[in-house]
Design brief:
384 residues, mainly beta, Porin, 16-stranded antiparallel β-sheet, two-stranded antiparallel sheet, 3 helices, 18 strands, globular, disordered N terminus
């Protein structure tokens, strides 16, 4: 596998951080939620709250510390609103900057309309990232930049069942971070390019009672993707490799009320990819499932399975807390999964409510794995 493929996922992670659109991601998650009126249950949003002008503006800074790009700050702003009979919609924009000069900018939006029949979302971002790439025991300083564009459309088949298609395009390049090479003409710089195009078919069954803070119901999804990636050098003039591959992810989450204010949530994820899949679009307990307590770039393989459980409690209308545990493993195929390619983790976190209307929280979590490694997470919205 070419050296630069091992770093593309880092670029994607920076895009996600830059969008803080974890807000935008939270908004995009509205793609998977049911309409506001479900199973005969009343909603907290009244008819007077519908419409583009009846939304909520949310601005949130998200500090971070990353061993690859240093410490930094991501700032995001978004606007949430609800159209009549539909699930929450919104738009967001975010920017990040780290101590080593890495930067990123991204924007995202999702709109649910026609009484929840149609959902459309789009995300676009770019990043310029500096870090050391570990290759055969050596730290290689690199500069990594590129652009990511994603589009999704989904149509409801019934109140809880929907089908959709996702389109993604990633264009990125990787070059040695050396003043000598930077002075060379663009055509002569030793850098590699990668273009990836992906289409994913998805099905979602959703009975949750709220998009951002569900207290009952379930969310089941199946995603089957097919992709083509082309690697080249000399600004795309010389093609090195062309791969076609597929990837499938199945997930199931459930939510149960505990007492007056508590919620018990659980989620399982199963991932499988073909042997032709590049490193950055493979499976793994951090890569495919986002399991807290494990680095995204470790335990990458062609198959993975994870399970996590979380208790969510409220201190008052403004503050809440969570306690969670997780387990996951990976392997070359589903039949040979092993905890050696994963492990167990546990942790706790604080929740600060940013929007009482939509129940959107600012999340601060700390997780530790079975190797006594600890990680801090600062995000918008619940983990699942």
């Amino acid at each position: 596998m070419p050296l630069y493929l091992t770093s593309v996922r880092i670029f994607c992670a920076v895009i996600a951080t830059a969008s803080v659109v974890q807000f935008g991601t939270s908004v995009a998650l509205a793609q998977s939620s049911p309409s506001l009126v479900q199973m005969g249950k009343p909603t907290a949003i009244t008819s007077s709250d519908y419409g583009l002008r009846k939304g909520s503006l949310i601005v949130a800074p998200v500090p971070f510390s990353n061993p690859m790009i240093g410490k930094g700050l991501a700032i995001g702003a978004g606007y949430l609103f609800t159209l009549p009979g539909s699930k929450p919609s919104g738009f967001g924009i975010g920017k990040m900057k780290s101590s080593n000069g890495s930067s990123g900018l991204a924007a995202a939006g999702a709109v649910s309309f026609a009484e929840g029949t149609w959902d459309v979302s789009v995300l676009a971002g770019e990043a310029d990232v500096y870090y050391d790439l570990v290759f055969k025991g050596l730290d290689v300083p690199v500069r990594h930049n590129g652009t990511l564009i994603a589009f999704s459309v989904e149509r409801a088949a019934s109140q809880n069942l929907s089908f959709g298609v996702d389109l993604e395009y990633l264009e990125t390049s990787l070059a040695l971070n050396s003043p000598v090479f930077q002075q060379l003409p663009e055509l002569l710089k030793p850098q590699a390019e990668l273009d990836m195009t992906k289409i994913t078919l998805n099905a979602t069954y959703d009975t949750r009672d709220n998009t951002f803070f569900p207290t009952s119901g379930m969310l089941a999804s199946a995603k089957i993707g097919y992709a083509l990636d082309v690697s080249s050098i000399l600004q795309g003039g010389l093609e090195l490799e062309r791969n076609r591959y597929n990837k499938s992810i199945f997930s199931l989450a459930s939510y149960h009320e505990v007492g007056n204010t508590g919620v018990l949530a659980a989620r399982g994820v199963l991932c499988s990819s073909s042997s032709q899949a590049p490193f950055f679009d493979n499976c793994g307990i951090g890569l495919a499932s986002g399991l807290r307590g494990f680095p995204t770039m470790e335990f990458i393989d062609e198959a993975s399975a994870t399970a996590q459980v979380e208790y969510r409690g409220r201190i008052n209308d403004r503050f809440g807390y969570v306690a969670f545990a997780a387990i996951g493993g990976g392997g070359p195929k589903i039949s040979s999964l092993s905890l050696n390619e994963g492990g167990v983790s546990f942790g706790a976190g604080l929740r600060i409510r940013l929007s009482k209307k939509y129940k959107l929280d600012y999340a601060i979590d700390y997780a530790q794995n079975n190797n006594s490694e600890g990680y801090l997470y600062i995000t918008l919205g619940q983990k699942f």
